[in-house]
Amino acid sequence: MSSKQMFVIAGILRPGLHRPTSRMINFSFVLLLFFLFGGASLAVAQSDDEHPRVEVFAGYSVLGTNYKAEPSLPNEPVVTAFEAKQTLHGFNGAVTGYLSKNFGLTADFSAHFGTDKLADPLGGDIRTDTSVYNILGGPQYKFRNGSRVTPFVRGLAGVAITRAKITVPSLNSSDTSSSTDFALALGGGLDVRVNKRFDVRLFQVDYNPIFLKDGNDTGFNRRADNVRFSFGIVFK
Length: 236
Known about the structure:
This protein is of the alpha+beta class. It is 15% helix and 53% strand. Strands 1-2-3-4-5-6-7-8 form an eight-stranded antiparallel beta barrel.
């Protein structure tokens, strides 16, 4: 029996799994929209300085996950809610307010999604929908040098919400597990100026570790060494 099948059975036998994240996820999405539209309004309203006071980034994003789990007892099977290593697809948005020419503070939000299927011996497929949400903030430093190409580095901290929903059509059953944990995003990227109001973010790469706590619903209980890659447009 695979670990996925073990989780499905365990989930069916464990009523009352933790399901508090839907409101938090909706709030996070509203918060992202507030940051993006509010930041864009500030960017448009600011004076025509050589260096913008506000930048708004929006783009496509990929998250490579690397979750880990260790048994609490030797030789004890580990039951987890989803595959540890996946490639999830989604979006990334951020607003940066600059306190000086180079130094600013960034509010960052990303959401990534993936679906995995496993053949069900009773017929059909066992479907696992996995999602990871990052809500982060921290300093960013941009190396403005007068050219069209501007690299930047940043260090962000906040929370990550890991969520998995397992659906078993043959049993007419579904279950959701989730965990909200401390997370970081350490990395940087490269922006190329198009004009006074727009840059193209060629790439942004962040090491995105999530420090999962013991006893959460997902079954993973060690640091997840995830990597996030994004690209898109910067409004300023």
